[in-house]
Amino acid sequence: MSGKLLQRRVDRSGPADYDHLMEVRDIHLSFKGVKAIDGVSFHVDDGELFAIIGPNGAGKTSLFNSINQVYHPQQGDILWKGESLMGLKPNHTAERGIARTFQNIALYPHMTVLENILTGRHVRMKSGWLAGSVWLGKAKREEMANREIVEGIIDFLEIEQWRKYPVGLLPYGVQKRVEMGRALAMDPEILMLDEPVAGMNLEETEDMARFILDVQDELGIAIILVEHDMGLVMDIADRVLVVDFGKQIAIGEPAEVQQNPNVIKAYLGEEVEIGQQ
Amino acid sequence: MLYSSYEADQALMNTGPKKVILTLFLLFLAFIPLQMVEGIPDLIPGFDFLGNNDWLKLLSTACIFAIGALGLNVLTGLAGQVSLGHAFFMGLGAYTAAWLGAAPGPLAGIGLPMWIWLPAAGVVAAIVGVAVGPTAVRVRGLYLAFVTLGLVFVGEYIFRNWSTLTGGSQSGRTFPDFELRLWKEETPLVDFANDGTWFGVALSGEAKTYYLLVFLLVVFVLLAKNLQRTRAGRAFQSIRDRDIAAEIMGVNEFKYKLTAFGISSFYAGVAGALLASFVGRTIPERWDLFLSVQFIAIVLIGGAGVVTGTLLGSVFVITLPRIVQDFTGWLTEYVTEGNGVFVWLADLLVVTGEGDFGLINVQQGIGSGLSVSILNQVLYGLLIIGFLIFEPLGLYGIWLRIRNYWKGWPFTY
Predict the structure, then answer these.
(1) Per-residue burial over B360-384, b = 16 or more CB atoms within 10 Å of its CB, e = otherwise
(2) Looking at chain A, which residue has its C-alpha nearest residue B305?
(3) Is B334 domain-assigned?
(4) Which residues span the domain enclosing B394?
(5) Most exposed among A75, B137, B240, B320, judged by the fewest C-beta atoms under 10 Å?
């Protein structure tokens, strides 16, 4: 498919000196009296596709925001390769290789597709404002080298024809892909996708599922997927975490989770005999 | 267009027509002052009036304002932070230039050459910008506008009272001339301020100053264009468009907002030093809120975030008063002569004597109506409102529309 992109497959040749790529240990997050996350623990391993599901308001996006340190959980710990992320700034999590897409597309609408994806390269580039202003030597070479990498991603996501369009003008499905491209441009080791197929039709959903699987298989990037589309989650996830009202109610392989009575209760409600009360 | 390398695709002048038009335009700018030189044929018919010294001065002023506005464009247009403090940083630059560059006398001055005082004016303004930045970057939108508004008043107060440097409100002070010296030698290497001969062509001081400022503007435009298309420029724009997402994607918001503040202040400092030297004698009240508002007007009318727009905006805002003045003068003459089809319409517009009704009054103090300077301020206001509502991309947006129309012509899309 795209040679350039594949050459940059995450290198896992050396022995890992950590237990899990990412580990979340019993985190609690509350806003004043509202408990958004109430004791959630899970871990994600190298190259794994881990899904988080749960009804609306269960705290899935808050989990992502906690990992990114946009929110700071009051209790618990989040470990990245054995090192705690707590107290860092969001941009530090990006530097460590944690990439993310957003539920309500958070692209930069006035910039082109190319520029949007190039902003993803920000953490992997070095030249400062002065070198950039002068546009000589290193800064120029760096721009060109990164342009080539970005073209690989554009090729991978099949968005060549929109390359120079301001993102705000593009259709929703394409914007979702561009957002994934921007995250991939960060050379991440984990990719957190917040509802990547929300609002998409069947064809777009299938395209996106293909991209997600390609990212996992060909690029070797671990994925955390938050999604409401049960068909998609049960089809592609390696393991699933179910949360409800901030509480962890089940974790395991898709088939196990589907049989879990707590999960059925959370999604379908309880069976109550009428007239017994 | 077919490109065979990413470099060609990302070049500033990536198409043939762009190259041709830019070259022609630069030649046009170069020929403007030559129109007034004897023995050189009229190369740009129709525009030869631009070679007059008063028009040259206007164009030079536009160049200086464009340099300042490029700075505000980095902060407001790219990074999305509204600042009303631009005049303060210009004042800082001007007085730094005066202190370093002016000849020793009753007011502070140590007589260093221009290649020191001009960059220093920018650097000092940038340092102060970065120093006050941390307070400013914590707030957004309207609150930021108010914090920076405060700067202007604090600055004016300091400038007014530091009379050993600024000369105070009564007389102000003079600023160093545009002269290039290696060090403090008697005769300057290149004298931009006074009449003289360059390469056998006799040029007025105004023409030489004009060439210097056009050259500086070209340099600053290149810097601004490059900044916009590289890593830092993209970081600024990402903060403008979606700050939280930008942070999650790895942009250090605090650092880049501060950088934008610093760069903007650098441009302002240089523009301030140039403006003060260009005008010659300036009082501390020159660096007031109206100057800041003029810069906001330039950026908004030209088109926020676009270098070309900033240039268009500068020329427009600086030449507007002159055009209005010439136009109303011509209207008054037209009405006084009294033979024309549209005299009745022109008569409605201008006040021609006591008791006459009209919108514009060119005879100072007699009768009703707006004076030309008030009319200009009203026009600025109306234009800012009009552009914000009808064409947020400014003059550049209008140009885009025209270009896209002709691109598709004769088809509608």
Answers:
(1) bbbeeeeeebbbbeebbeebbeebe
(2) A110
(3) yes
(4) 325-408
(5) A75
What average pLDDT does range B235-239 have in this prediction?
96
**Pairing, β B360-361 against β B350-351:** parallel
Q: Which of A164, A187, A210 is the last residue of a domain?
A: A187
Residue of B222, B249, B252 for testing the chain A interface, max A β-carbons within 10 Å: B249
Domain that residue A237 falls in: 19-97+190-196+223-277
The CA-atom distances, in angstroms, between B100 and each of A244, B279, B306 are: 68, 18, 34
> Tokens at residue A208, please?
């996106």
User: Domains in chain B: how many in total?
Assistant: 2
Phi, psi of A177 (to 5 degrees): -70, -40
Residues 296-335 of chain B whose Cβ lies under 8 A from any Cβ of chain A? 305
Q: Does B252 touch chain A (CB under 8 A)?
A: yes
- Whether residue B96 has pLDDT greater than 90: yes
Let me know whether A115 and A157 are in one domain. Answer: yes
B46 located within any domain: no
Nearest residue in B to A182, CA atom: B249
Residue B316 lies in a domain: no
> How many of the other CB atoms lie within 10 Å of CB of A89?
16
* Chain segment A35-48, per-residue pLDDT in tens: 999 999 999 999 99
Backbone angles phi, psi at A143, to 5 degrees: -55, -45
Distance from CA of A266 to the nearest CA of B (A): 31
A212 in a domain, yes or no?
no
Are residues B264 and B363 both part of a single domain? no
Q: Could you tell me the pLDDT band of residue B363, with boundaries at 50, 70 and 90? A: low
The structure tokens listed for A130 are 């002065």
How far A135 CA lies from chain B's nearest CA (Å)? Answer: 6
Number of domains observed in the structure of chain A: 2
Question: Are B176 and B277 spatial neighbours (Cβ–Cβ below 8 Å)?
Answer: yes
Q: Do B245 and A108 touch (CB under 8 A)?
A: yes
**Contact at 8 Å (CB) between B165 and B154?**
no
Q: Are residues B357 and B261 in the same domain?
A: no
For residue B180, pLDDT beyond 50: yes
**B247 to A120: CB separation less than 8 angstroms, yes or no:** no
Q: Nearest chain B Cα to A130, which residue?
A: B227
In a domain, B47, yes or no: no
CATH number at residue A38: 3.40.50.300
- B244 in A contact zone (CB under 8 Å): yes
Distance from CA of A98 to the nearest CA of B (A): 9
A1 min Cα distance to partner chain B (Å): 21
Whole-model pTM: value is: 0.91
- Residue B330 and residue B281 share a domain: no
